[in-house]
Amino acid sequence: MTFRFRDFAVSKFPSFHHEHPSYRWWVLVNILLATFVSVLQSTAENTALPKMQASLGTNLDTIQWVLTSFSLVYVVALAISGWLADRMGYKRTFFAALVFFTLGCFLCANAWSVESLIAFRVVQGFGGGMLMPVGMAVVTREFPPEQRGVAMGFYGIAAAASISIGPSIGGLLTDSYGWRSIFLFSIPFGALTMIATLLIQREVKSKNAGAFDFPGFFTIAIFLVSLILALSDGNASWNLGGWTSPFILTCFGVAFFSFVSFLMIELRSSQPLINLELLKDWNFAMSNIILFVLGLILQGSTFVFPVYLQNTLGYSALQAGMMYLPQGLIQGFASPVAGVLSDRLSPKVPAFVGLAAVILSFWMNTLLTTVPPRWMLILPICLRGLGFGLFFIAIQAVSVNSLPRDKLARGSAMISLMRQIGASFGVAIFGAFVSNRNIFHAMTTGENLDRYSETFTFASNQLKGALAVSAGLPPSTATTVGSSLIVTQVRVDAYVQAVNDVFFVATALTVICCVPVFFIKTKKKAKHLTVKNRGDNTEAEKNRQNS
Predict the structure, then answer these.
(1) C-alpha distances in angstroms, 476 versus 126, 146, 451, 462?
(2) How far apart are the first and last CA of the chain?
(3) pLDDT tens string for the chain (547 positions)?
(4) Residue (of 378, 361, 395) closest to 156 by Cα position
(5) What's the rounded Cα separation, in Å, for the pair 312 and 302?
(6) N or C: which end of the chain has fewer CB within 10 A?
(7) Residue 242 three-state SS
């Protein structure tokens, strides 16, 4: 049936034929639409969690499982997406991912309890976990190496656009129509993308898919689930023991032993689920390390900064989300520029420029105060948009350029998996770090706070006088309230200092990322031009001539 749809579409639109020069660009539009709706959904729903909690009558720990259940299944789907694409075909796997994702959106919009919502998020997460890696593999397969940078640049535009407007759309829909509208909003986009996939994409299968690696799947699934559980619940309010509680330590222990078992199984398997042999490719290995660390930094800083905006500066959820609008817009413009620079010069050029911008932005955020000027908030966000737009596209392009075409699906899945694991580590590590540093600064400042000093007495008297005049409080009450305000301000200052410490760590880690970027191997353009002039009859050369 799908072939009939596609044959009919090709007869009406010859550019849909896979040999037509415009075909790869139609495929790119198809993948961009899926990427846009997937990332938009994940960013928009975060703003609706408080409304979900109130509507479904549950507590904070339970409603957080709406996010945790999605993450658990998402990472497992990432792990198997490469094998499914090789076995079932890229088009079928991508279409199936869209079906699961769109069906999950429909079910979530009609959830009648928090338990049903969590269950339906599992369906959505399974589809969402396959969309990104398979989509990136399709784009990489259809574009020749010298055009992949530009293609990845446009791919980055879709992700950046959805990141920038997702929180705003989520806040607007939630306030106007309720939290269910966020899931309903994605359904038409999902249906449109399914139709486009049927009509545009051709089917491609790998001849070397092999049998499914059940031992490898079970061990990697246990590793990912136990790891995500430990990282997500380490700071949960119900977990009174924190990171040293028996539950968290057990999860980490299970994760460690299952990961070791997974490595032993995969290294001995003739048909591994995740081909660790790909890490023998130098650029691919370096890119995985870089994307893991940058995923950790990006997600960790993104987790901390909105909390600072809302709890310290008094921003609403919508206002905090709008602060990220410039980052997404600038990242969208920077992504195609990175692709062009990667193709014409070297991926290292946009990568190092991007890292420099990110380092500067994180360093500026180490100077935050309780009353920062507005430009000190906006400029670092804009620099991060520029930096990540240049950096991520360059690294993603170089990571898969040297991989064989029949290994692109599994390579893309591994890259997405490493970045997602890094993001999970980022939220847990930065969340724990800011909590510990907050306690440290509060204790340090509290010990140095002398209630009998001239400075404290002067500030307390000033507040007492102001409260007595403006609020009409008696002297004794005004003195107590004034002292409490000073202590509260000290606590706020302690939290801001903890946030500054987090961004200092982010700055240092980003600087460290310059080292593996420096060792990435790039082909000299002169050599590339020589090969081109020889007129090699390769597939890439044919694609260049057609385009």
Answers:
(1) 61, 76, 16, 14
(2) 31
(3) 555 767 777 777 777 777 777 888 888 888 888 888 887 777 777 667 777 877 887 776 677 777 777 877 887 887 788 788 888 888 888 999 999 999 999 999 898 888 888 889 889 988 888 888 888 788 877 877 767 667 766 766 666 666 667 777 777 787 778 888 888 888 998 899 898 888 888 887 777 667 777 888 888 888 888 887 787 777 666 677 777 888 888 988 998 999 899 888 888 877 777 777 777 888 888 888 888 888 888 777 776 777 788 778 877 766 776 777 787 778 777 877 877 777 777 788 888 888 899 999 999 989 888 888 888 888 998 898 888 888 877 887 777 776 777 677 677 777 777 877 777 777 667 777 777 787 788 777 766 566 666 666 666 666 666 666 666 666 666 666 666 666 677 778 888 888 888 899 889 988 988 888 887 777 654 444 443 444 444 444 444 444 4
(4) 395
(5) 16
(6) N
(7) helix
Q: Check: pTM over 0.85? Answer yes or no.
A: no
| Alpha-carbon 351 to chain mean position | 18
Residue from 136, 6, 20, 169 nearest 403 by CA: 136
Kindly give, in sequence order, each residue whose CB lies less than 8 Å from that of residue 378, ignoring residues fewer than 6 positions away: 323, 326
Q: At what angle do helices 65-88 and 114-142 cross, to 10 degrees?
A: 40
Place of tokens 């079970």: 218
490 Cβ partners below 8 Å, 6+ apart?
A: 442, 445, 446, 449
* Length of the chain in terms of residues written: 547
Q: Where are the alpha helices (DSSP H) in 312-373?
A: 317-322, 325-344, 348-364
Q: Do residues 63 and 52 lie in contact, with contact meaning Cβ atoms separated by under 8 Å?
A: yes
Closest CA to 512 of 362, 381, 393: 362
